[in-house]
Amino acid sequence: MGAEALSASEVANLLARLERQGQIKLVRPHRDLMVGWDEQAQAIWFDRLHGEGMRAIAAFRVEVRSGEQVLWRGESQEGRTTIPIADLEAALRAGADQVVILAAE
Fold first, then answer.
1. Spatial distance between the Cα atoms of 42 and 29, rounded to a whole number of angstroms
2. Euclidean distance between CA atoms 74 and 44, whole angstroms
3. How high is the pLDDT of residue 10?
4. What is the model's pLDDT at position 61?
């Protein structure tokens, strides 16, 4: 399973960008992923993960972690998963220091 991680500062930057733009594309070497707010701005969705050669990856997991401890986990359903903003805020208060996207390949 391939993994990409966002640090706590990258998550804060992501949230600020989402407030301004509504949705953004995260781009990493050999991966990209769309991230955005739901219509009520009560949750953040992760959608359309692409891997090497822009191949769509429908099965992936998003984890919010403090070190190796998983504080929140969401499995994709048909290539999309959503984290309620209240759960993300609770994880950040509990010391979350990264968001990890794990792709089943």
1. 30
2. 11
3. 85
4. 94
Model pTM score:
0.83
Tokens for 57, please give them.
């990856």
Nearest in space to 6 (alpha carbons), one of 103, 105, 94, 97: 97
- Cα–Cα dist 8/101, whole Å: 14
Domain that holds residue 78: 2-103
**22-31, long-range: CB < 8 A, 24+ apart:** 28/4, 31/2, 31/4, 31/101, 31/103
The tokens of 64 are what? 């919010």
What is the mean pLDDT for each group of 10 consecutive residues in the chain (105 residues)?
76 86 87 89 91 86 94 94 93 91 81
**Angle, vertex CA 11, rays to CA 74 and CA 84, nearest 5:** 40
